[in-house]
Specification:
- The complex is a heterodimer of chains A (284) and B (295).
- Chain A is an all-alpha fold and 284 residues long.
- Chain A has 12 helices and no strands.
- The longest helix of chain A has 39 residues.
- The N and C termini of chain A lie far apart (53 Å).
- In chain A, 49% of the residues are buried.
- Chain B is an all-alpha fold and 295 residues long.
- Chain B has 2 domains: 43 residues; 245 residues, MetI-like (MetI-like fold).
- Chain B has a two-stranded antiparallel sheet with strand order 1-2.
- In chain B, β1 and β2 form a beta hairpin.
- In chain B, α3 packs parallel to α6.
- The longest helix of chain B is centred in the N-terminal third of the chain and has 42 residues.
- Chain B is globular, with a radius of gyration of 23 Å.
- The chains are: A mainly alpha (284), B mainly alpha (295).
Amino acid sequence: MSHVNRRLRKEKIAKILMQLSGISITASLFLIVGIILYKGLPYLSWEMISQTPQGGFYIGKSGGILNAILGSLYLASISTALASIIGIPIAIYLNMYVKNGSFFARSVKLLFDVLFGIPSIVYGAIAFSIMIWLGIRASLLGGVITITLLTIPIVVRTIDELLKTIPVDLKNVTVSLGATRWETAKILLRYIKPGIFTALLLAFGRAIGDVAGVLLTTGFSDNLPKYIDEPAATLPLAIFFQLSSPIPEVQGRAYASALVLTFIILFIVICTHILASKQKKHKI
Amino acid sequence: MNIRLIKDSIIQKVSALLLLLALSVVLLIVFGLGSKSLPLLQDQSIWDILSQSVWSPLKGDFGFLPFIMGTVWVTLISLCIAVPLCILASVYLVEYASARLRNFVLPLMNVLAAIPPVLYGVWGVLFVVPIVGGWVAPLFGLSVTGYSVFSGGIVLAVMIFPIMISIMVEVLQTIPQDLKFASLSLGATKWETIQKVILKKAKPGIIAAIVLAISRAFGETIAVLMVCGNIPQVPKSLFDAGYPIPALIANNFGEMMSIPLYDSALMFAALLLFVIIFGFNLISRLILNRLEDKI
């Protein structure tokens, strides 16, 4: 009998351990968001998000982070737009024009999966050396190119997964009515519309949060981004550069930037969640 | 009628071209980084570069050992923390938790995955580093700043939680119910079933998840750079500062142009990262794809 008791005790201990690990993993998320809220909220004001930094980079005490907010939004939206222009046709091609399940389609998908995992610093390094080779200096353009390369695999793989969830019947019915492959693809795209927005939001989130890629290619500037061939500030870099400043006001700008970035990311996540549940309801 | 067919074939050609363009990025990376790192490889043998521990670009010494060891230390620490936690938590989510709890926790993992690396870095600097420096290290009788491979490992562990949990949960959900019931009906407790049946069956998937997490940890740049201390030495203890490979590239790209072979060394570092991560990713994706086919 004691033997059984020991086994049951083991079961109890294991269960408690599992609960503890689940709690600590979930708690880490709240810790991160909590710390950023706690540090950032006191510095968040209208001046902070409506002005550019004044009095010189790294030492200037007044002003805000408008340059970084705008820079990040420009960079992320242009890159996401470019990535979707390139990525969506690729996903359609892989599903409509190539024989499904063929060796070619499978290996291309595998390659995109692998590319998805390549860290942005590698993209940054290669883009940096190409820019030197072409004689382009660090600029918004360089950042856009790097981030576009980074986000294409996300768009391709997410949309490919979505296209896979469409019932084959829908495709067969459309084709049997005499539609060409492109016309069928248009129907299918309409079917997964909420999902496409999800893919774009994911890409946007990755684009706006990336540091290593833009560190090497985009540079930094205290001015508002006006031209595409000039360096531009981004939120992650504003955090990275100003966090180590000895001046509390400059550090405060880093905290405020972190907070704004967190809000943007949370907004994106909530939107994708809503869109994903919409897509589910859509299913036949 | 003709116009529709022409449109169709134009789209086909354009998207095939886009696909080629997107895939040529791989070649671009390999050949670009490869040709850039050739000067260094011609100057010194690859074995010397990888095994020497002296890093002083001004004298022409490019020993990568401190950076390789820095990356290995940070990655191992993060795995030691994250692997047991994630396996236990995902088993709990699949086998014990109610659907409500699962639907609450899994979206939170998506939030964790979406948080940009730099915010993890901020968290590391404001929270992990002071705790390691002020509480953990004094326990061992050390007084250090807290900027160490240990802090880097903790931050990385949190960063790889979401990728591990989401894959492990998916893998565990594919284990056939029959196997569980067979084991339970033989009188095994739930925990014994988990240990001896479920985890055994899920082993390839769990390994794939871990390998994928390793490659994520290898390439992580900014968060680690912010908390690791960045001193080019081979770390000897948990509380020594380290200098992982990605941090090396990010920190020095600005000055690399003025010193001979420096740019070549940094591009070699990027190539090294690319090759290792490409390999690891390929392995884990192949395992996962095979598992998916079986179902």
